[in-house]
Batch of 3 targets.
Target 1
Amino acid sequence: MSVADLFQAELKAVNLGLESFADNLRQRGVSVVQMDWRPPAGGNIAMIAALDRLALNPKIDIEAANAKAVQRMLKGKPMLVGVGIAKDVVPGMRPDLILHSGPPITWARMAGPMRGAVIGGLLYEGLAKTREEAEALAASGKITFEPCHHHGSVGPMAGIMTSKMPVWIFQNETYGNYSYATFNEGLGKVLRYGAFSAEVLDRLKWMETDLAPVMKKVLAAHGPVDMRGILAQVLQMGDEGHNRNRAGTSLMIREFAPYLVMLDEPKEKIAKILSFLHANDHFFLNLSMPACKCVVDAAAGIEGSTVITTMARNGTDFGIRLSGLGDQWFTGPAGIVEGLYLPGYTAADAAPDIGDSVITETAGIGGFAMAAAPAIVQFVGGVPQDAINFTKAMYEITLAESDFYKIPILDFRGTPTAIDVRLVVEKSILPVINTGIAHKEPGVGMVGAGLVKPPENCFQDALAAFAEEYTAT
Amino acid sequence: MSVADLFQAELKAVNLGLESFADNLRQRGVSVVQMDWRPPAGGNIAMIAALDRLALNPKIDIEAANAKAVQRMLKGKPMLVGVGIAKDVVPGMRPDLILHSGPPITWARMAGPMRGAVIGGLLYEGLAKTREEAEALAASGKITFEPCHHHGSVGPMAGIMTSKMPVWIFQNETYGNYSYATFNEGLGKVLRYGAFSAEVLDRLKWMETDLAPVMKKVLAAHGPVDMRGILAQVLQMGDEGHNRNRAGTSLMIREFAPYLVMLDEPKEKIAKILSFLHANDHFFLNLSMPACKCVVDAAAGIEGSTVITTMARNGTDFGIRLSGLGDQWFTGPAGIVEGLYLPGYTAADAAPDIGDSVITETAGIGGFAMAAAPAIVQFVGGVPQDAINFTKAMYEITLAESDFYKIPILDFRGTPTAIDVRLVVEKSILPVINTGIAHKEPGVGMVGAGLVKPPENCFQDALAAFAEEYTAT
């Protein structure tokens, strides 16, 4: 076709970018195809350069490294294997160490709910007798604060774990590594939301003296529980394994009940435990979290992999870690959750985003599997179609689909698994996280639930550091 | 616009009926709007006449009668109130009476699975010692066969109830009426699928001596269970209350477990019961069925109402009853179920459609709520979108939407409730039923599950009879 032909033939345009250009042409009767296109990395020159360097001049085969990380994430088989006391089983745990959710943080920078939970933890341990004593001790430098994630552990919301607390023990059957999490306390006034009243401490004590020892015996009688099988089922029962856990809790109760009955324990004690589980649909959260943790941990530390193996928040910072960059954290400010508030509370009461529960999204369930749990919008806000759209968007930033976790309404498509930080930055699509909302002051508790976006800079910073590390010189 | 204008202006057509007419016009460049239209009642002249007579010359205010029936169906509150022995609690029950599913039928016309279950029932009652004795007794005229539905009861598949069998007792709290159903035996070799081996009879005996008395005590301790609340929940957990009952069974276990533990019973007995419930996801079916039965029964017998208050099959005939025509049955041949077969079986092994479980669809759940249970297609065949489409189609033939049973994926729309026989006939849209498939021979059991269409003639016959009864002369 000559140039002359071009001006004689009917004009057919393909438009990239701003749709208003296409609209102008259409108004003049020109046939236009609008391409859904945005500039990579939102046009951020430094990020485009980093992506280019990694694409054109990598020091290592990134795709091969990611294939290995993906393989490890897809093949991980989380088994609930036992119950122990933190100081006996969690690596490095000791009485003057307090584990918390999210990336590392000092007492001085801790958000209200985390401070409240630390106070509660020190009271629970008997290291302080009053709130004031606990605050003084926490500020004294005599207590060490470290992330749960540094000790193979995860904790919802404040995520406080102290040495006497009982923990669930998980093992990744495929790769052998372990993970740990405390027991879920229920809703309302609970330590993980920063409450530390006598009611909270009494419950923690009962969990230590009654609930955990009984659960330990039940697990010994039952044998290890295949949590991958349970998680696969809950996704067919309206749960997503993070904020909707009614099916998961129900399945654990029916799994354990026949063994609970057979224990040599007073029946009042067993009945109280069954009533406690029945009254707390989030019982399952503290099982789905360590199940995810031991799976993603097996995909960590793979040289050259851009897969995100940690996302976590401490109420002040949101942080991520990449498989190929070891233990290095990349952080940004924790966001404010948009969602539904309990009666009497508003966004003005909310603490910023907090907790390790985003381990579920990191492993490909939770917010990433919201399409399996459309009823969750009653808890976190929005309409059912949003839940489907969130899941669909997450396929854009992940490298694989689960072989086990399937979403019926998406024709049993596997959940989006293994987030590639390059895709997050290139497409400017941030991971979807659904979460609870804590009151910003210590001692209050839960005020709502909703959806939150992580800060974009931590993904960009991680990509920049990765490009620095892995571009050939 | 003059006729001359018409032929000069651009032609714009609206096409009713056969779409090929529209296609022809489109091929000639004519703008066509295709209306989704079919002749009423598929063009059946007698049915159109019946519908017209009822519309133009009714003897009674049909809409007012239906409003009353709908109100009763929407306001019914099914409560599980107790456990009893059939002969003690089911109205009219006696040792020489056997209740069965579906419309009335004689021994001579019974399908294989129902004969098998009758044989099992007579062996269980001690009225016969061998299969041959049982068959001779069943054929002798000394045993009376009547539908469960004539005794306030419902039974899945063969639906056999004999005098010694334990039954769940339901009461419609709003209207006071009662309903009954036997206990679910689990899957595989079970009486309701026509099996009657020693294994089947031993299990029935254990249910009589152990399971039912314990459940009776549990209910006494727990108090009545609000089954409307439970059903509302299961629809948000991937169940539809007919063939997918994993959530329902789980919720009942967690509801009962704390009370089971506290009973003054050997713990081995309690553990065996909890294991039995855990191993049988259809435990809940025999609770959802009588829950639906006591609700639709309250809407029966309303003069002038075209609402369908019974659909049921005995393996030979499919039958319906209308609210405004009392106890009169309208029947047609039971269909063959299209679905998925267990390994080793094919459609050639299948008995025709059987069971009272279509009471769930009659009440607006089950197949009518399939959109809430997309994972069910793995059990009954098809793809998840089919499940959504089936539910949407049922809004076409129902008069109301449930205030309690909501479907998350349809933006929490209430389930389609109260089938109007006029709409079924006028639109030629038959109720969607999902169901299990029994082997056609006595003694074998379940061979699969799927979807089945009821025979259209019973709806047409019912409409004709209704028009006869309710047209003013």
Target 2
Amino acid sequence: MEEWDEVEVPNNVKDIFVEMKNTAELMVDLAYSAALFREKEIAEEVLELEEYLDILNYNLMVRAVLAARNIREAEQITSILQMARSIDDISNAAADLAKMVIEEKLHRLITEVIMESEETIGRVMVSPDSYLVGKSLEELDIPTNTGVWVVAIRRGKRWIFDPDEDMKLMPGDIIIGRGTRTALDYLKEIARGIIKVMPNG
Amino acid sequence: MEEWDEVEVPNNVKDIFVEMKNTAELMVDLAYSAALFREKEIAEEVLELEEYLDILNYNLMVRAVLAARNIREAEQITSILQMARSIDDISNAAADLAKMVIEEKLHRLITEVIMESEETIGRVMVSPDSYLVGKSLEELDIPTNTGVWVVAIRRGKRWIFDPDEDMKLMPGDIIIGRGTRTALDYLKEIARGIIKVMPNG
């Protein structure tokens, strides 16, 4: 837990709330990635994010409760607390899945279900002659240009979760992404250097 | 409930499970859409999907429990039941949000949070001179080509939720989509006829 003692929590209710929603969604993507590739390191990250989310949730609740000045406001603020609880439920579901990955208790069916969903998870390796090499995630805008949401990147032995927009891709990087099979295949062709341009590149 | 009496449930555990995951994810997208646009019809659809998901969940549990023949199998099948419960939790969270939309108990902050998340929801109107007109969702492959996941389409007074791939877009159609702000803006330019081609069109 100590590592979160110094953690910076956004200052206002809205920013905490946005951070909670983004974090829970990242946790779900990472949990599915961990399950699909049996990657315990990714599963561990999900559990760390769960602790971070608990801190955000606590801070949100304190601020939200303080803000109510009359019955009508209190009712509406209840909707904030309820949605925060829903986000927390979603993050707990992700953490449960991550724990099953760590304990090696996953039925192979779970992997198949993740692979056959409308939106799935894929792993894409960046080849030296790909258009992606040397460009930042901001320049590339992979979500708009390929339909793939970048969940994490593996560089050598290191995982980069929820990478910053100024991160530049390098040959050998492994992108974990979420999208349809077609979108993931399309990104693969760009990453392999088979497709030489990006739509808006 | 009657309308689900005749509902077809897929025949094997995997297909039921995939259908559950897809349905829960659709419910979340629809719940956020309902909250953002204060659309009670969309919220009602979320509640109907929740009933459908309960039926799927029951069928999955019966089949999964039947499949266990020894302790090791029973342990692994427990992971299926646990993930099914997680999916059910996520669908309940979506239903809670939908209920708040119907009861008009949403704090405006919830709308702001949905709008400012990394992935958000947008509404895009198809203009008569857009490239999209007359083409099927399959041909267009909007997710790969623009990064926008199509959640629902409004045609006249009718909502089409989770539209089929062979559906052709018409002028005046309103697409509800999920994606980054950049991706949604890009689709808007195509829908308005400002951008005349699709990347892979």
Target 3
Amino acid sequence: MPKPRPKTGDAKRAQARGVKLPATVARRAPAELKYVPWNKVELEELNPLLQRQLVVGQDIMVARVLLKKGCVVPEHSHPNEQLTYILEGALKFWVDGREIVVRSGETLAIPRNMPHKAEALEDTVDLDVFHPPRADWINKTDQYLRKR
Amino acid sequence: MPKPRPKTGDAKRAQARGVKLPATVARRAPAELKYVPWNKVELEELNPLLQRQLVVGQDIMVARVLLKKGCVVPEHSHPNEQLTYILEGALKFWVDGREIVVRSGETLAIPRNMPHKAEALEDTVDLDVFHPPRADWINKTDQYLRKR
């Protein structure tokens, strides 16, 4: 049986009660209009081959992920649904027993809790959409990305 | 008081009980890995100035929206959170009492139920992310887009 995932509203209610949240649940952002040029968003350098920018809504997070050729994202999983859209370059994924190369103009939808690994076959600009927003990326507790 | 929005799991449970769903709630897709090149996705022509492609996950939908210069999206609102990322061109939005031009490389996060109108100032490629997926786009009941 899969573990029931936390609902996005749970974080706010739990915090209001002073309950410590599991590390995978992000505090829900306020519902507000946000106009954000990407060039005003912090470009976070996770390791010499990997940079990232985040725009976080209430229940959606969009990340621009910049991977240099040869960058490896080690196998990991998360309770967040993921939809990857490759804007430039190509990523090879190992997921669900398959090897899939996702190229510019292609998408990959990865269900929650499905382990996956990726490697950049070229310098790549990857747009990753998550629901709910990823607490580990927001809180910078994503150690699996910060090693080489 | 804002009307409580339907939760995404509600659709499946309601359908299992034979309950007729409101038109804004999409049937939840199965949790499956999907590898989708955009050039294999149906390009739907909504009107002579507006085309659209959809990739639908469980709780996330991503749409590539192609707008010709002068295309107007009339004011509307929806219970789905929206995050717009302009890949090419420029859209002018009327939203929350403001006029905001969102250009290539910029994003706009629109909270659920916030009315908005848009006009393409140039030929535009717009990536729209929604949570939950938009039933009116999936079911083709989005008449507001099908008129000129």
